[in-house]
Each structure stands twice: as structure tokens, then as C-alpha cells.
Amino acid sequence: QVQLVESGGGLVQAGGSLRLSCAASGRAIRTYAMGWFRQAPGKEREFVATIGWSGSTSYADSVKGRFTISRDNAKNTVYLQMNSLKPEDTAVYYCGARSGTGDFGSWGQGTQVTVSS
To answer: I need a labelling partner for 88 at 20 to 30 A (CA). Which of 16, 28, 34, 60 fits?
Structure first.
């Protein structure tokens, strides 16, 4: 079982940037697909971005061109670079791992991102 710890959240003004990190332990993530998801108050958790074991990426339409997901398998860490942040990006951001074709899981505790207008 892989354990995940997110960090890097905070309070930022609209138009600003943040870089989230997801540090994995317990297993090497090089064969896992990794993803970032977020949950705003009163809303369901939603997909933000994923990166496959090969490095292929996928993004939600709402963050395309502003967010970049990357991975460093040597450090067992996944990142989410968030630029041009908007108030609607405010949420708790979670990192998840997926082995094979199953669902994402092994959720961390999340990191709060708050974007002020």
C-alpha cells in the first residue's frame, strides 16, 4: 500500500501561483498512475489532472493551460504547478494513486488552496 502526503497549499491572490507536492512512501510509484483531485466546500471531489506511468497527462478543461502535473520517480513525488489561479480554484487538493485499471485511492490528507479575489 502506498501512502501519500500532500503539501504546498496556502493563501494566494488571484493570478498568483502555487506548487503542490505529493510525497509517496511505502511503494515506488513508478508503475502507478498518479492524479490530483480537489474538493470545494459543499461539492463533490473532482478530477484535476493525472499523469500515467509513462508520463502521459490529462487535465480537466477548467485547468488546461494553467496547471501542469509532473512526476519525479527518483524522489517518489508528484507535483502540480498551478499558475493564473482563480478564486474558483479554491479547494482542498488531494493526491491519489492508481495501480493498473482500478480506481484512484490511497488518498492523502489533502492540502488547502485558497485564492482570494
So the answer is: 34
